[in-house]
Amino acid sequence: MHPRKSLTLALAGLMLATASALAQPTEIRIGVALEPPALDPTAGAAEAIDVVVYQNIFEGLVRIDQTGAVQPGLAESWTISQDGLTYTFTLHEGVTFHDGTSFDAEDVKFTFDRLLAEGSVNAQKALYEPISDVTVVDPTTVEFTLSRPDGLFLFNLGRGDAVIVAPESADNNGAEPIGTGPFAFVQWDRGSRVVLEQFGPYWGDKPALTKATYLFIGDTATMTNALLAGDVDGTNNFAPEALAVFEGNPQFKVLVGSTEGETILSTNNAKAPFDNLLVRQAMAHALDRQEVIDGATYGYGVPIGTHFAPHHPYYLDLTSTYPHDVEKAKALLAEAGYPDGFSATLKLPPVAYARLSGQIIASQFAEAGIELELINMEWAQWLEDVFANKDFDLTIISHVEPFDIGIYANPDYYFGYDNAEVQSLNDQLNATTDEAERLALAQQIQTIITQDAVNGYLFELAQTGVWNGKLDGMWQNAPVEGVVLRDIHWVE
Amino acid sequence: MGVPCPMTLYLLRRFAGFVVTMFVAALVIFFLLDLLPGDPARFILGINATPEAVAALRAQMGLDAPVHQRFIQWVLDMVRGDFGLSHTQGLPVAQLIAERMAVTLPLSIFAMIVSVAVGLPVGILAAMRRGKATDTALMILVQIGVAIPNFWFGMLLTLLFSVTLHWLPTGGFVPWHEDPVAALRSLILPGLALALPQASILARVMRTALVDVTEQDFIRTARAKGLTKAEAVWRHGVRNAMLPILTILGLQFAYLIAGTIIVENVFYLPGLGRLIFTAISERDLVLVGGATIVLVLATTVTMLIVDLCYALVDPRLRGRGA
């Protein structure tokens, strides 16, 4: 019998058994709003993919823990050369993929050759471009050579985009993911759920859960009912407007934490009148950040004054650089040659925080004389218009990549900010591995982009999870995208 | 060579109309999808992808060929039964649609049965008690049934039967082969939610049609022959009132297959409506095109069957050949 089939049959039997015996304490049903389009984290950007597979089905050489720190993963240890250009990883022995094939240094080389190949469709390929060569030293030793030092190299290795895949199964991972993680893929009923089961021969510590089911529930009211009825045991990110139902209910745990999502009023710096610093400063003064946070995130967002996550040690609090001051905004506009203000468009992607923030900002800007026309868009259209073609005045978007201040050093990036000083500082930041120096450089960049009012800095998106009160071990913060099952367990 | 009989001609004409409808539908669907703004490859790879990665994916998805070539290829493939591969899921579109049909079809049929089982008797009863208190009460209920949006009714059902009583699941779907009873249980609430407005419409139409028929001479003749009112309505009235009912049933069934999207969302059911909705937002144009064609096919076939049923119910139509 085919192993997959016997697994499915065993599972079917298990489910029949558990349907009658109530509340098995080793299984979990997690509700998530979005269904992943496929299950291969190395061939798509959708967060929904990582939510299911990251650190559950797939593992990287290193892994990110819930504080955002880098921990050993498939590599038990590593050494870095003096010049920061050579990383030598020692791999765990006795690791197998879920289909029974064994894991060794060749799989690592295969993974990165595939990621960096000509026809690669990895969504974060650019992050790994410093890698110039991957060499197999022996089956448990692999050496990475970089073309330039990269302070974020280890962190990037821990992302879902760099998980290790096997040549035997890589092409089929979208439909039937085969990794080395503590949970193996069992089935995907499209439109409904994905089922994972604990992988018996897992090389590391066994997780407490034996089975996890992800249910795709897009509607907030439905999710509320499913949680209340006990049809799902939790969700990692719940609509903030409905959290009140669960707060103060002892049967539930509400976990409010941070994410890596800097939500900004992105401004087309290459286009008039936004190429004028005075205009951007006027807009910064016209913004009432707290009002946006209260209205668009029900108070759960954390204010930011620059493009950096507030929980990061490098973060600099610049929220008071341009305080809310309508008169100042009008004066700056007049000085810039727009005494009667101007009108512009604000293109909004289909996410609640953007649509709500857009309405609030439009009314705040109107007070200062800036008339905004709100244009609602679907994701695909937004990506093409705003992101690829740079055909926009303003937009609102959360930049969810960790440590992504480097986008300000790319003049071709969609918001079109071109500043030679920032570009040079960013090069230094990339090339430095000394922590103190890195901190100083990162804060210098933060200060410059804030003073330049490149974009309107609004808030850091919160992660608002709702879980059954008897569950423990969930991540409160989301330093990377994912719902890591490893430590989740039932108490009592 | 003899003149073909009217029935054959009727069928031939119907079939030609069917082919033309399908072709025009394919044309409209393809070019409308092609006009949609948004690059599917960019959508999949997100905002940090390099232009080379996006170009590689576009080529892999076959999006770099000229538009007329892609259209001809698409139609030819579909005629051969090949609906192509979904961009986002990498699976055959036909398989994805078939999987969803395993939910949508039983759900539609269940809703249809409930709707007929409730709607027709209510309509007949109201017609026979025309002008009396029963009629008024039933018609008020029916009016409410038409006015309540099905998704909202669904939420109310969930609150009562799932959240409060814990009798039925709030949603989701267990595949038939895994647990048929659980599968059936998960269709009960959405089925009822879908059936309520349909049953209400059916009841109204049934009542009106029957009232019209009972005013006809042949009913009076039947009464004169000594039949009771109920017998006359039952034997002669109901059959004659079936024509408008058939039309409505055909429309309703087509609507149920294509239009359950909101109810599917409320009950997180993996049905066809949700598949199309997701596919549109993800710019999975192959999937949207294939699924839409299947819907057009289902609607056209339903209408064809309804037309044939007319001929069965009303012998007068058979002779006319039109």
Automatic annotation (TrEMBL), chain A:
Record's signal peptide: 1-23
Native organism: Devosia sediminis
Gene3D superfamilies for this protein: Dipeptide-binding Protein, Domain 1, Dipeptide-binding Protein, Domain 3, Periplasmic binding protein-like II
Keywords assigned by UniProt, alphabetized: Signal
A GO molecular function held by the record: peptide transmembrane transporter activity
Name assigned to this protein: ABC transporter substrate-binding protein
Residue span(s) of domain Solute-binding protein family: 70-399
SUPFAM superfamilies: Periplasmic binding protein-like II
Family named by the database record: Belongs to the bacterial solute-binding protein 5 family.
UniProt GO BP: peptide transport
Lineage per the UniProt record: Bacteria, Pseudomonadati, Pseudomonadota, Alphaproteobacteria, Hyphomicrobiales
